Recover the amino acids of this structure.
């Protein structure tokens, strides 16, 4: 049993202060999530655009001078035959991809996991050339007193995954790009397994197969290797295009349950359960045959990029599970379940 | 000054014994190269196809049972509208990419670096699902008494880079995938710099920019991180599409010279010189403005995939440089120069 919370969405873009004048918030979604003291903290992806000039398509980006980052706007004439809109998320100019919004990571805090207060200022925002087009989809893993936050960075170098670390959700130390392009959906396990840190990740696959979930090992969380493909899309309507990992894995006596997403027919995104072996997490114990969650409610089937449920944040409190997810690349929602129910969904 | 050897090519496909009955060798090219005792050893990429049945397109692949690997053939009806030929190198079926040949790594040995004897049997060949479509383009780096060999593996998981190690070019120990898909053109430096092993690599970039040369660090040659883009294609006729690193870097008092390749207009491949800073090899000291080598000779402008010169093997002996390169994805050639000349080409 899993139930979508009755007053979803729990955070909407209009509750979020823009990061600067002239920007508007189009999305507050895909939150990382973590239990921190008596709080649950969400690491929201906040997507912003700037109001385009009449007759132009505007792409918000950053430029960097020394240690400082500055917002910037690329403008393309709407009538230029070299300009096309990929979907609501992307702009193509002269064969190169750009994003229609720029994202950063913003904190939201709650005592009950349901009612959140969104902070006024960004928590992690672009400061490096590898982050020129934005920072997306944070995931948090607590290991030995520190919170490791990984997120997608986007630039001319394409999309990759960077790492940062914090102890207090105030100061953040950047650790650089840990998975080179093109890679996202990185989920770091909360403890070492057989002497190595473990992560799931999702490299691109531009033709030989479909984007799939991979497994990697690390001695130090910074350098990763022993890459293996462990799970591929299936020939069903929910996973026909690609799959990718979700939040950091939870540990249970039966194994590591993972909530992953599938992109299926008509670009509909759903969530699935997977159980990985405790001591050999590159091995699959069980894989659900039908989705745990699909877009059914108006807030999931309408919006910026409709028919998307996407989870990269999960919190367990006293056996109860808060599964946070982004709906339609626009809002934050939550579904409630518990560990036993989750393990019985297979 | 660099001069193409007068009797190029020095190895042709017809000098290479097929790895099994029914196969024919279409290419012996893109060799890794290393000074080993009184020999120069080349690690050839040998590309083979099977004769297609009348009316079919044949794709040679491997399948695996336990520890054993077996050759296999996928056959697609030539008249099937779902089948198309990408170029001489690729077949597309139902939107998925396949290779028209399967490659393995074969040794060739020489005393003078010019006259080679090709071994009868493969040295490294597919034994793992990640190598199902073949093994390509080896590079060798000597570090502390061992020879580290990296090579491109191709499968449904797309293309990635794996590592193996040998001390004697007889026994080889596999070390798994060190750069996840999609990544090739990996060149490992011959010593640690500021306490870390260093490699150049070339991740794919499917839209945001053009495939470029990246830098990474490792504590152990197996796990890699701190990925940074250090060199992008330029807007000239030789590098307009993409670039990628060549053989392992050489150490000189002025820095690390690198011979990289550019894919330019009309898919012509050329070779360029680059000089990286000794203590900070992510920094560019000099980049040549014109190519070191371009396809000009008939053996470079005709063949399996014409207008390609591609180098992943270099040997330095007493200041003299043997720059080995593949021509037209078909033969092995060599160009001769010396360290001083190379540094003066900038």
């Amino acid at each position: 049993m899993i139930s979508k919370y009755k007053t979803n969405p729990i955070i909407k873009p209009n509750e979020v202060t823009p990061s600067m004048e002239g920007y508007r918030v189009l999305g507050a979604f895909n939150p990382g999530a973590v239990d921190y003291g008596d709080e649950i903290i969400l690491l929201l992806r906040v997507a912003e655009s700037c109001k385009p000039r009449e007759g132009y398509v505007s792409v918000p980006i950053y430029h960097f001078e020394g240690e400082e980052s500055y917002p910037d706007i690329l403008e393309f004439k709407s009538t230029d035959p070299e300009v096309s809109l990929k979907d609501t998320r992307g702009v193509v100019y002269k064969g190169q991809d750009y994003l229609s919004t720029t994202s950063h990571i913003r904190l939201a805090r709650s005592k009950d996991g349901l009612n959140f207060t969104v902070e006024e200022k960004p928590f992690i925002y672009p400061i490096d050339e590898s982050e020129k087009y934005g920072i997306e989809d944070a995931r948090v893993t607590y290991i030995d007193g520190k919170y490791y936050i990984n997120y997608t960075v986007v630039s001319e170098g394409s999309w990759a995954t960077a790492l940062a670390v914090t102890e207090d959700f105030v100061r953040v130390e950047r650790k650089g790009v840990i998975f080179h392009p093109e890679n996202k959906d990185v989920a770091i396990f909360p403890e070492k397994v057989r002497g190595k840190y473990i992560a799931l990740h999702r490299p691109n696959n531009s033709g030989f197969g479909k984007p799939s979930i991979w497994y990697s090992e690390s001695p130090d969380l910074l350098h990763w290797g022993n890459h293996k493909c462990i799970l591929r899309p299936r020939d069903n309507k929910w996973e026909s295009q690609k799959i990718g990992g979700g939040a950091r894995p939870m540990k249970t006596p039966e194994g590591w349950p993972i909530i992953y997403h599938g992109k299926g027919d008509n670009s509909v995104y759903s969530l699935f359960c997977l159980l990985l072996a405790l001591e050999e997490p590159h091995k699959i114990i069980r894989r659900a045959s039908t989705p745990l969650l699909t877009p059914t409610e108006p807030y999931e089937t309408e919006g910026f990029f409709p028919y998307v449920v996407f989870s990269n944040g999960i919190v367990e409190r006293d056996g109860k599970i808060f599964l946070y997810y982004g709906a339609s690349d626009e809002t934050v929602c939550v579904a409630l379940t518990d560990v036993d129910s989750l393990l019985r969904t297979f």
Observations:
- Chain B has two helices and 25 strands.
- The CA atoms of residues 8 and 145 of chain B lie 32 Å apart.
- Chain B touches chain A through 46 residues (CB under 8 Å).
- The longest strand of chain B covers residues 23-36.
